[in-house]
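Following up on my earlier message about iron/sulfur cluster. Here are the inputs again, as you asked, copied directly from the submission form:
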Amino acid sequence: MTPELREQLRSIYRSADAAVAAAGPVCESSGKCCRFTEYGHTLFLSAIEAELLLETAPEYESVDRHGCPFQVSTLCTARVDRPLGCRVYFCDPSYQDAMPEILESHLRQIKQLADEHDLPWRYAPLHEFLGQALAEGRPARVPLPVTPH
Ligand code: SF4
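Thanks, got it. Here's what our run produced:
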């Protein structure tokens, strides 16, 4: 990923983070949002989000559809470049009305960014991107400090 694209994507993430902060969902760090099967949802992301995530996420040895390999205890170890879905999804019932607009408006920006860089658009579950990266033998990374989700 080029430095320009990395910064542009991170800028969209900062905008999403600000919108979420303004909406004010409560997070009690239960970690259930990252245990997909248990919570009954699937984390989708785009190919450029997966590319950035894999640049800074820690090493992982296996992946499946049930949960994220970057969750340790209830915390995220890939927090710096976690995808849009991780940033905007919160289980707080009082936030559910605000979430779709924040997600959709920023996803549109990411799609536009991919188009501007002539990158093919692929939107798929997390385990597909991580499984593909494992199969391609992506190099191990240095784990980042664990910080609360
Ligand atoms: S990247 Fe982090 S926030 Fe996103 S699903 Fe994985 S552990 Fe959870």
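One observation from looking it over: Residues 34, 43, 68, 70-71, 76, 78, 82, 86, 149 surround iron/sulfur cluster (CB under 6 Å). Hope that helps, and feel free to reply on this thread.
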